[in-house]
Inverse folding.
């Protein structure tokens, strides 16, 4: 309902327009909950205060330290998986590899 009214007034935030201005905020607005500051980011009545408030609100919901920890964790999981797969391949084909080296 609120999105329909916002579209009628021309203040409905679109992902593409937000992405051009602030990619990180566009992601947070798209995947986060709706907030009143959404409707003051673009269009009639847009303000810098709304941008500051949106950044503050979504930074509280999506702290950067959590996302950086998740990136580090995923890097460790990928590297560990590659090492485990390599060890399995070597262990499974040990005799074939020994013949190649001799």
């Amino acid at each position: 309902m609120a999105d329909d009214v916002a579209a009628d007034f021309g203040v409905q935030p679109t992902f593409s327009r937000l992405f051009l201005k602030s990619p990180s905020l566009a992601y947070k607005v798209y995947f986060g909950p709706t907030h009143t500051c959404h409707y003051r980011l673009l269009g009639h009545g847009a303000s810098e205060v709304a941008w500051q408030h949106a950044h503050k609100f979504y930074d509280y919901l999506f702290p950067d330290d959590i996302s950086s920890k998740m990136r580090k964790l995923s890097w460790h999981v990928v590297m560990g998986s590659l090492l485990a797969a390599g060890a399995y391949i070597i262990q499974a084909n040990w005799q074939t590899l020994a013949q190649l080296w001799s």
User: Anything to note?
Assistant: The mean pLDDT is 78.
